[in-house]
Amino acid sequence: MRGIPELFVSKETPPQPPLVPTPIIITFEGHTGSVLAVAFSPDGRLVLTGSADNTARLWEANTGKELRRFEGHTGSVLAVAFSPDGRLVLTGSADNTARLWEADTGKELRRFEGHTGSVLAVAFSPDGRLVLTGSDDKTARLWVANTGKELRRFEGHTGPVLAVAFSPDGRLVLTGSQDKTARLWEADTGKELRRFEGHTHWIRSVAFSPDGRLVLTGSADNTARLWEANTGKELRRFEGHTGPVLAVAFSPDGRLVLTGSADNTARLWEAGWDTHISSEPSKPKPTPTEPSAAEKAKPEPPEKTPRKTPPEPQARVPARPVTFQGHTGLVWSVAFSPDGRLVLTGSADKTARLWEADTGKELRRFEGHTDWIRSVAFSPDGRLVLTGSRDASWRLWNSKTGRELCQVWSLKEGRWVAATPEGYFDYDGNPETLGLLRPKTWPLAN
User: Fold this and answer.
1) What is the pLDDT of residues 50-106, one digit of tens each?
2) Cβ–Cβ contacts within 10 Å for residue 2, how many?
3) 245-289: per-residue pLDDT in tens?
4) Is there a contact between 45 and 67 (Cβ–Cβ < 8 Å)?
5) For a FRET experiment, which of 29, 141, 303, 421 has its CA 20 to 30 Å from that of 313?
6) What is the mean pLDDT of the chain?
7) CA 274 to CA 283: how far, in whole Å?
8) Interatomic CA distance for residues 160 and 142, integer angstroms
9) In angstroms, how far is CA 105 from the centroid of its own chain?
10) Which string of DSSP letters, residue by residue, matches 19-40?
11) Could you tell me if 393 and 399 are in contact, meaning their C-beta atoms sit under 8 angstroms apart?
12) Quick one: pLDDT at residue 95?
């Protein structure tokens, strides 16, 4: 990285308290809109961001360098995802479309058109052959990735579809809606198999357990609920939050449940699946149909294998919920580390925090953002933490030390700037970009 002129660099390195990261030497303005979604590539080398500036961007994780810009949407990019092999990028937008892009070139490969409302959620099937979208038009739709053809429409919700997910084997589709229900659908036929009813307010987040036998929902009724996928039975209700549950996640072994809420806390719960769930997972029967081009895009059913004994818990299962308390703003996003031992939260208090899963102890505080943190993620190896904020920037941190490694801003006309707390930076090579640099106490020129 290029060195910053001496004027911009501190002469002394301030002491670093355990929960305070290295001060930022330079402040930049970034995206021309909020960063609404972030994702790591499957190998952890790339970062994908979606923004209210109508673009998605691809970045090099270890340098912060902007590699690609995905331009074409005419509305905010609300959702992003990588294909399982990392070669494709999927975006969902307020322009009512989802789009498929080539990660290596930034070329738009496919446009999924048909929704009559904003595309609020997107997902790839486990084999990468299908694309799932959820929309403000009250439908979810299944598309063939390599043709853009609409394969199936999941209709029945009476409110916007806010969340979507594939089961681990790709046979089932899960949707959560503002109509207070979550629904389970057969991917092959579009048939509604199960309706999870009981919430008294909209459902903003949904998840499958790693083995596909459980469904988890988070709702604005201040609860999260655990359901049996093959019966629709409510197994457990996680009560205690005093605000809407905005985010839910299963631990990697499926034995713990993590929730994030507008009450400014995240909580860890025992799923209890081993004492409540029937021994056989749901096995939807495929509907015989004539072979067609569309049918060729369907995921192949997995081979029958003996049921494996689930792994031992990776964190001590608490007898009572563990509460991660300390945020002073609502908790927008939550994530488990790959080994299940750590919990990551992102909040409207402008901080992200790292916690010990089994005790609720705060281990690290990631400070520096100047607005809400809407998205958080771990790299696949758990060594890095990624945060995306309404301050129009994303930041990369060392999970073990809490140290900020890099901060990235994308500017107009393809320009970008990346900076480290030590005072080094890189940029797009445009001399005009250098005119945006100012000492820490000065504002950035627009």
Assistant:
1) 888 999 988 887 777 788 999 999 999 999 999 999 999 999 999 999 999 999 999
2) 9
3) 988 999 888 888 999 988 988 898 988 754 333 333 344 434 333
4) no
5) 303
6) 80
7) 19
8) 16
9) 23
10) T-PPPPS------SS-EEEEEE
11) no
12) 97
